[in-house]
Write a structure and sequence with these properties.
Layout: H1 5-10, E1 14-19, H2 23-26, H3 33-38, H4 71-78, H5 85-97, H6 110-121, H7 126-133, E2 136-141, H8 151-154, E3 159-164, H9 166-169, H10 184-191, H11 198-210, E4 217-222, H12 237-243, H13 251-272, E5 276-278, H14 294-299, E6 305-308, H15 315-324, E7 328-331, H16 335-338, H17 340-353, E8 360-361, H18 369-392, H19 398-416
Parallel strand pairs: 1-2, 2-3, 3-4, 4-5, 5-6, 6-7, 7-8
The structure holds zinc ion (ZN).
Residues 18, 20, 142, 365 line the site of zinc ion (ZN).
Length: 421
């Protein structure tokens, strides 16, 4: 007798295609319970950590906790925001990892939990051990605080990373930084390229793509939905050139510069068969609808796009796009953390509408190992439920469900990123 589907799914190894494991956070030896809440998506319940147009954001929002932690600091999450999915997922994960016996986090147990977290994080292997317990074998991280770092060196042999391109699309002027503070001029400096002309900038794009493997980077990552409109129009080089080093560049010229940079990077990626990850859905929300990316995807039929987060809340639109364009793959990352019930509905539809079984994969999208552990526990539960429902209604056999689960958890990512098995 094969094991029940849920047991089978809970033991499957994971290839984790997206995290924000940054060495300074993930491997920090000074981490307490409040840090785990602040430096996780649960922290987004307190304030949005990225600006909308015309706003500035408190830089300390996702920074380490200051001063002595008190119960009201913790209650702000587990009571005031206790119904939120980000909070629920993290609490359930901590309950299992720290043996809270199903009680969650309470005024009676939080201090003991805080001490255990602090003790464990002083062990440099703890974070890696938690990822091992989550069943994660390999990890692709997006280390946006040091985009050109070699994650294999900074985080371990089982890590690779992606090259975040936001700063390049905004690089018409040396003063410009993306929402993470990255600048194209800093990339050029790190690579020893003089950035004096628009042609130098084009060369920078090419060198960055050609040196990805040197840095163990396996894809480029477009997270521009946090910085600008993701409707990337056909490149107009003459208009883009007018923005170069021009503080008075018009909004149209600035947009053309970004459109040109992104289009050029997608073309370079296509020529070299390098995947392009792209954030879709909630970010700067009136910029981030997945349909806005259709032009870019259509212009680059030989570029493989890995579109993220089920484009929440526009999952149906994204799935429609993935039905039409065969250069789209779907990264389920974050969608199950935003809303488990939305995720279940969308996964049911994804299974039905996607043309083949190669299209789905997922990651944690988290900063600390405890949050990643929690995310994967939550995702395993939800994927088990959906696949069991598909078996129960006779959509397919249990053997089909097991085959598909193995692909979603690891096989699709191995093939998509051409990893060694
Ligand atoms: Zn992310």
């Amino acid at each position: 007798m094969p094991p029940p589907l849920s047991d089978y799914i809970h033991q499957l190894p994971i290839i984790d295609v997206h995290e924000h494991h940054l060495p300074e956070t993930f491997l920090n030896s000074e981490v307490g319970l409040l840090d785990l809440f602040k430096q996780s998506y649960a922290g987004w319940t307190q304030a949005r950590p990225y600006p909308l147009p015309g706003e500035t954001v408190d830089e300390g929002l996702m920074g380490p906790a200051k001063g002595e932690t008190t119960w009201p600091d913790i209650a702000a999450y587990v009571e005031n925001c206790g119904s939120n999915q980000f909070v629920r997922s993290l609490v359930h994960g901590l309950d299992e990892l720290y043996d809270l016996k199903g009680e969650g986090i309470t005024e009676d147990n939080w201090q003991t939990l805080d001490q255990s977290i602090r003790k464990n994080h002083r062990d440099p292997n703890w974070a890696h051990e938690v990822m091992r317990r989550a069943g994660v074998q390999r990890i692709i991280t997006d280390p946006y605080t040091a985009t050109l770092q070699n994650a294999t060196k900074t985080l371990g042999d089982h890590y690779q990373s992606v090259l975040r391109i936001n700063a390049l699309a905004m690089g018409w002027h040396p003063d410009n930084a993306d929402h993470n503070g990255n600048r194209a001029t800093d990339f050029a400096k790190e690579l020893g390229i003089d950035l004096d002309s628009f042609d130098d900038f084009c060369q920078l794009l090419e060198v960055l793509v050609d040196t990805l493997a040197v840095r163990n980077q396996v894809a480029i990552k477009n997270a521009l939905a946090y910085d600008r409109d993701i409707q990337f129009d056909p490149p107009d080089e003459a208009l883009a050139r007018r923005a170069w080093r021009n503080k008075q560049a018009s909004a149209e010229e600035q947009k053309a510069f970004g459109d040109f940079a992104v289009d050029h990077l997608c073309a370079l990626a296509g020529e070299r068969d390098i995947p392009v990850q792209m954030h879709l859905g909630t970010a700067v929300i009136h910029y981030s609808h997945p349909m806005k990316a259709v032009g870019l995807i259509e212009r680059h039929p030989n570029t493989r796009f890995l579109l993220m987060h089920l484009a929440y809340p526009w999952s149906v639109d994204l799935l429609g796009m993935a039905f039409v364009y065969r250069n789209i793959w779907i990264d389920l990352t974050w969608s199950f953390l935003l809303s488990g019930s939305h995720f279940k509905r969308a996964l049911h539809e994804a299974i039905e509408i996607l043309p083949d079984e190669s299209r789905l994969m997922f990651g944690g999208d988290n900063w600390h190992a405890e949050e990643s552990f929690s995310s994967f526990k939550h995702a395993r539960n939800l994927i088990s439920e959906v696949l069991q429902e598909k078996v129960d209604c006779g959509y397919f056999q249990e053997s089909d469900a097991r085959r598909l689960a193995e692909k979603i958890f690891s096989k699709n990512a191995i093939a998509f990123f051409e990893m060694d098995e």
